[in-house]
Specification:
Length: about 400
């Protein structure tokens, strides 16, 4: 088992190691299989979690048997309660629920999801029956270290309101205030986010700025999910920032890009003064099971990951990569939504409202808004030709040749 350890100082006194896994979503079609084969699917990675003091999993689907999907753009994801055997097989202590699928089945879906976890003794964060509940931190004390966890998601669908169940929305000012208050009270703070661009291996300049802002506000570690592919990591002023570990267990489809199949589990190492090290375990995410990468594949994975880390210290290069992504996903993707005839301004029926939800999501989700704004800026200032420079590089990084996509 080949891993990577990054240590920037020696620990002082007792320590706490928190393993944080990325997106879990068996999709409804695989829910029963996941429940029946949980121990088999997770077996090769179990020892990594067993050697952790705190085990965290990003759970990206509602847990309900009620067929009450909300209106939204994009898929509605759920699994059934027996699928929680997956979390139990790894000894998961805490499920991150701030994401764009927790609210996919409405009020009853959120309630059922919370009850399913809590009835099995698994704590949750990032979702609640109202905004106040969803935004509450979770506290743990392990080996004498007091840790607080925060969780928030970009504003797609299913976000909690004052009297509406759902996920905690991303509010940087609120998060910074919570972090400062928790640090004043003596807590180590792990901040978990859900945002970024699907299938893009880098943070946008805005997302990097946000994560660094939270680190500079006092967070001891920042962990982000959502991209369905691994992104890089950096140590910013002694604070580890993981921009995405990739999918954890999210069974691929035949059309899935090679980057869908790979990921890493970061382990954040804390003492009473904050984070002192980051450990990484690479793996394959396949429908049949999760599997450790052979040493040769792991070596190629870490070399590939180093390519993802490179622009994190070069702002101009990170911007150029994002410009290229806007050519791929903005100009040739989302912007096409505006080529279709505009829906009529009629909002008396749900069918009329549904026609507007895709456009609504392009403006309300922070990352979609990044993409639109930057793409339109490239058009405005005649920079489309310049933005083509790294298109091929981005596409090649999405398809690393050493990734075996067969089951």
């Amino acid at each position: 088992m080949q891993t990577r350890s990054i240590k920037w100082r020696e620990p002082a006194g007792t320590t706490l190691k928190a393993a944080a896994a990325g997106d879990f979503c068996p999709r409804e079609a695989n829910s029963e299989d996941t429940a029946l084969r949980a121990a088999e699917i997770t077996g090769e990675l179990k020892s990594w979690f067993d050697r952790s003091d705190l085990r965290i999993l990003q759970w990206e689907c509602a847990v309900t048997e009620k067929d009450t999907p909300i209106d939204k753009s994009g898929p509605n994801h759920r699994c059934f309660p027996p699928a929680l055997a997956f979390a139990q097989s790894l000894g998961i202590d805490l499920a991150l629920l701030a994401n764009n699928h927790t609210g996919d089945y409405g009020e009853s879906g959120v309630r059922d999801t919370l009850e399913a976890f809590h009835s099995r003794g698994i704590r949750t964060i990032g979702a609640g029956m109202n905004r106040q509940e969803a935004e509450m931190p979770i506290f743990v004390e392990i080996n004498g270290i007091r840790l607080a966890v925060l969780n928030a998601a970009e504003h797609e669908f299913g976000i909690a309101g004052e009297n509406r169940p759902g996920a905690a929305g991303l509010d940087p000012i609120r998060l910074a205030g919570q972090i400062r208050d928790l640090k004043r009270d003596g807590y180590i703070v792990l901040t978990a986010l859900h945002g970024g661009h699907e299938h893009y291996m880098f943070p946008s300049p805005r997302l990097q700025q946000l994560c660094r802002f939270l680190a500079e506000s006092g967070a001891d570690a920042v962990f982000n999910c959502h991209t369905h592919c691994p992104c890089g990591y950096e140590i910013h002023g002694g604070v580890p920032i993981v921009y995405s570990p990739g999918n954890f267990y999210f069974p691929p489809r035949p059309t899935s890009l090679p980057v869908w199949y790979i990921g890493y589990v970061p382990k954040f190492c804390f003492d009473r003064n904050g984070a002192y090290a980051l450990e990484l375990l690479p793996y394959y995410n396949r429908k049949s099971r999760l599997s450790l990468m052979p040493d040769n594949d792991a070596g190629q994975f870490f070399a590939w990951l180093d390519q993802l880390n490179e622009p994190l210290t070069q702002p101009s290069l990170l911007q150029e990569y994002f410009d290229a992504w806007c050519m791929i996903s903005g100009l040739n993707g989302y912007l096409k939504a505006f080529q279709n005839p505009c829906p009529p301004f009629q909002f008396e029926e749900r069918s009329q409202i549904r026609e507007w939800l895709g456009i609504r999501n392009l403006f309300s989700c922070e990352s979609h808004h990044d993409l639109l704004r930057n793409t339109l800026s490239l058009i405005e200032f005649g920079k489309l030709k310049d933005a083509e420079k790294y298109v091929r590089l981005i596409q090649d990084l999405q398809r690393p040749g050493w990734v075996a996509v067969n089951e």
